[in-house]
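Posting here for the record, re: zinc ion.
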Amino acid sequence: MGQSICRYCGAELKICMTDLGVAPLSNDYLANNRLSKGQHTLPLKVFYCDACKLVQVVDYEMPEGVFNEEYKYYSSFSTSWLKHSENYVDYIVKRLELTNTSKVMEIASNDGYLLQYFKKYQINPLGIEPSTSTAEIAKSKGIETIDDFFGATLAEKLVCERDKFDLIIGNNVLAHVPYIGDFVKGLSLALKESGTITLEFPHLLNLIKYNQFDTIYHEHFSYLDILSVKRIFHDNGMKIYDIQKLDTHGGSLRVFISHKANANVDISEAVENIINEELAFGLDKVNVYKEFHEKVKNIKLNIWAKLINLKKNKKTIVGYGAAAKGNTLFNYCGIKNDIIDYVADISPFKQNLYLPGSFIPVVSPERIKETKPDYVLIIPWNLKTEIISQLSYIREWGGRFLVLIPEITEL
Ligand SMILES: [Zn+2]
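Prediction output follows.
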């Protein structure tokens, strides 16, 4: 592999934060007829750019035909995420005093899980969703949706055809765009002079602090902190004026952004507080990243020891929640079907498929009641509380829950 270059500033990437070996794309779930063909894998490494501070997955070469169009993640399958979205809409409509003439756009609007809540305020929002199959679901709910990738080109077109926006929403999208500079330029072009952008993304600080290496996958290009995000928006004529800490996805941030020239917003203390927290933790220094590299290798050994011990004691283990994080975890740790019998998932779109890389079958949660496993490994640990309450019936046969991140825990 040749030199790797920062996707934002073009500097050479020298500091490896973690090397998770090779893995297939995390949402490349396989149907039965693909199992005999094997699966294409790509290197999965994260680097810290010491020039612009952006933490990023190193560039990989996508072979033709590998891109998986059957996007399997539908936001509406998580009840806690729906509640989070509804609360956000109620909050933001009030805070920004939006009315039925306000122009609202969400980028990566998925199946309309969030935009649907604007209807009660008679606001007709626009969704941007590159996955055609997912966009179709949103359209069927009556939410206008454009199936395209957002960037400067689409922003210019939208402004020409429809004017600029009062509110632009991006939840878990900023980290998922390969060229963050072009994306942010697009946001700046599409935002009204008085407008606000809110973005939610998992906080890099938590990833490092709480060992969330399983949130690393190819489609998750950047791992964000305020130090880097502030710089990228500043370069594009914008400023962060408020930040809220959220519990979602293992600890996310919601940032509020406006044009630099917008004098009607006051910069909240929260912005400086979080920057100070990041500096105190050392996110601007290379040592934090080098230490993380070593830490992840140790976690793998501990996970192995735990699972080997359970299997030696003839325990049955199944997984719950076929989330992307499970694929990183299983592929990095070499966990396959001889350790995990199956993974149950509530989404019918994933059932009867196989996990990328590990080829562990995905089944309906009903199977847990039929097979009565000793352990249920909760893969989306961020939804731990919700899942434990949904599956409390495993206690009837003495079943236990297992969580591996941030540390190995039996519940
Ligand atoms: Zn850079």
